[in-house]
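Re-running endopeptidase La to confirm reproducibility after the cluster update. Everything else is unchanged from the original entry.
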Amino acid sequence: MSKKASFRLTILLSILLLASVFIYLPFYVSKPGMAKELEPIIDVEGGYDEEGSFMLTTIRMGRANIYSYILAHLSKYQEIYPLEAIRAENETDEEYTSRQLHMMDNSKANAIEVAYKKAGLPVDYEYKGVYVLQVVPGMPADGNLVPGDHILKIDDRSFTSSAEFIEYIGSKKSGEKVTLTVTHKNKEKNVTLALKQFESGSEKAGIGIVPVDDKEIEVDPEVSVDTAEIGGPSAGLMFSLEIYNQLTEEDLTAGREIAGTGTISPDGTVGRIGGIEQKIIAADKAGAEIFLAPSENGADDSNYEAAVRTAKDIGTNMEIVPVNNFDEAVDYLEKLQQKTS
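Result of re-run:
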């Protein structure tokens, strides 16, 4: 092969390699993320210190390019998901990010409520309006509202829940107008929209948003949870344990490194999450001694069972502990023997 032909081939291969990085496929790839100590990001005013640590675990999730797609196929602990399995139909990048961050905020509020009630402390909420989670393409809100907007009033009426907001909209007919008082990027504005019938064949009309309650939890002592850009609800269990541990004198860590995962409901139920296998790997790499996993009341192929299989496969000594609810997790931790150096 001549030098000129060799040079051209090199250039072509370089272009193809570059294209493989920037051309995205209709798939997502997840891989092991990190295990992050919670004490530095959660602060209960006047709270107690701990000798060990609680850790949240994450996965790294991103759109697949040709290069990452091939690597995921070759890797045992990377998963490939079709686009529709991760994002709702017609959901934009902005809407997806907004939804993930809102789920994180909701997870934090649930964790605070569970921990404070367990500690015998009062919990209250300040209702702030309706949060726009998604906007339906082709409906009146499309182009006028975006995910993350907060609706404070409708026709100058305040509401105490998103259910009341939906009920009011439902009392209107197609073509009728409503005026929303909205905050967008901390700026207040009024938006007037004419209701439109949904294309699904329903006789009901609406403005085309998915609304959820926007409320702020109020507790004493105050607590702050700084999660930056971490999204999703899967850290709820570990948030609640860290908060409760700072509220109570007994150190539940017993000097150990404790990781885990699971959603948390206001009643303390621990729920299933995705990517448990990758989170086991992240926790093991971070040196966790114990991993708390959702047991799902003994359901087949529960998070706990998948965690046990993965732990055995990678040869970790980390103890995998099944939990169905917050009380079970606390009961287990209260029985831990203090770690000796």
